[in-house]
Amino acid sequence: MPHRIGLIIVAIALLSACATGPSRSKNITNESFLTDIKENDAKLFVYIANFKSRPVKIDRQMQGMRSSGGQQGQRQSMSSLRSEMALEQEEQAIEALEYKLQTSGYCRQGYFILGNYNQFGSVEIRGECQESATESDKQLFGNVR
Q1: What is the mean pLDDT of residues 111-140?
Q2: Which CATH architecture fits 2-54+89-141?
């Protein structure tokens, strides 16, 4: 009996780990993770996430505005929704980036965002790890382009 309880606990832990994984896979169609270790041992990276479409919530709101009247208010509302969509995509890209950094072990002590770019459903995040590259980092990651 205690053996079964242990198995059940392990099974629940595994299922919850799968369920709490990043939600990025629903909206990101593909991603790229490029590393660049400089001569001074600075560890830089570029993460690019491409999104398949607008989030459903925003898509529904845009459809509702198209069916209602009022040109000026509609333009402002559409612009506001586009900004909301861009922010949501950036948040999802950062979540996916953090998952990538965690699973790859590239930035073990955190990172700085040097800049980001979001246009046409593609988010690019450039950053630098807080720690310097070790010999192991240089062998594992080198300059992957």
Answers
A1: 95
A2: 2-Layer Sandwich (3.30)
3-state secondary structure of 72: helix
d(CA 75, CA 70): 9
Report the helix count and the strand count for the chain, using DSSP H and E: 5, 4
**For residues 48 and 26, what is the distance between their CA atoms, to the nearest angstrom?**
16
Is the Cβ–Cβ distance between 46 and 125 less than 8 Å? yes
Q: What is the rounded CA–CA span in Å between residue 66 and residue 78?
A: 9
How many Cβ atoms are within 10 Å of 130's Cβ, its own excluded? 12
Residue 19: what pLDDT? Answer: 37
